Amino acid sequence: MSAPYRLAYLVSQYPAISHTFILREVLGLRARGFAINVASVNPPDRPPEKLTADERREAEATWYLKPQGAAGALKALCLTALRRPSALVGGLWFALRLGGTDAKKLGYQFAYWVEAIMLGDWMRREGLSHLHVHFATPASMVGLIAGKVFPIGFSFTVHGPDEFYDAPGYRLAEKIAGADFVVCISHYARSQLMKLSPVTHWNKFEVCRLGVDPSRFALRESRSAGSVFELLCVGRLGVCRTMDLLGSGFLESRIFRGHWRGSHQRFASITRPRCAPPPPWRLYWCVTLGFYVKPVTLPPTRASASD
After folding, report:
1. Residue 71, exposed/middle/buried by CB under 10 A (0-12, 13-18, 19+)?
2. C-alpha span between 223 and 210 (Å, rounded)
3. Taking a C-beta distance cutoff of 8 angstroms, is the pair 38, 63 a contact?
């Protein structure tokens, strides 16, 4: 039997509530015979006792970058300077060029270069030759720089829409050029990347949609008319998620109960309905604040009959 194909995954924070789909992706690839080693820039978003069993196992096996501290960074830089001095300097020059003349951006790019060296040294120790990153955010910049210093492959997944609003700021064109392939979660995402790249790079784009496991979330027979309809919405309550529209849609309909889980400062605006549905109704909101899920009951804005 041939050895499993080995991959490194870099995530900004793993495990995390908002990155559950990445955990499922990693577990799914392992079930299909891939050997996945995960690196995370930051520790998990919750203490161990708040993690699920799968998350605890992943946290124990994950290599965390920032906890390595200055000592870990210095060690990686020294080892790389001995093994790949020219590539080390070339990677620094590449990173700083992307920062332009902005002092703040130059500082960030220097930090990304240091993290890239730490990541590449970890991959060398683990015998990993390809890196995949989710999101076209700073983590993918770290991966791009690492690919300039170390003999590794680099790919990333583009979700959108934030990076499409500021493609130059996210350095999407440079990341596309430096990637071996790019995963797009929709044809729309692919079309946005095609606008930013020459035709010679279009063969890099692969569409792979995100979704739920239908065996775990199978359709159930609808309830009888007049019964309470419950909806659970789990997600990051950001502007790009348009939760304001979704929330107001619930309140303007005859949906009586909704359950929300997510994390974002926009929770307050979402829980201020423009109108309320006819009684009886009750709407439950669950918002994740830090490590804890706090239930919030939204009082009716008009007289309502009891359930």
Report:
1. exposed
2. 28
3. yes
Q: What percent of the chain has pLDDT over 90?
A: 63
Task: Dig out the tokens for 231 from the structure.
Answer: 């909806």
User: Taken in order 177, 193, 99, 155, is the CA torsion positive or negative?
Assistant: negative
pTM for the predicted model, two decimal places: 0.78
pLDDT in tens, 211-236: 777 777 777 776 665 555 566 666 66
**Alpha carbons 86 and 149: distance in angstroms, whole number:** 9
Distance CA 120, CA 143 (A): 9
Distance from C-alpha of 83 to C-alpha of 171, rounded to nearest angstrom = 29
CA 91 to chain centre: 25
Which residue(s) pair with 36 in the sheet? 7
Are 275 and 252 within 8 A, CB to CB? Answer: yes
23: left (phi over 0), alpha (psi -120 to 50) or beta: alpha
Give the DSSP letter of residue 98. H
pLDDT > 50? residue 97: yes
Preceding amide of 161 cis, omega within 30: yes
Give the residue among 15, 8, 73 at the shortest CA–CA distance from 42.
15
Q: Specify the amino acid at residue 189.
A: A
Q: Are 119 and 149 in contact (CB under 8 A)?
A: no
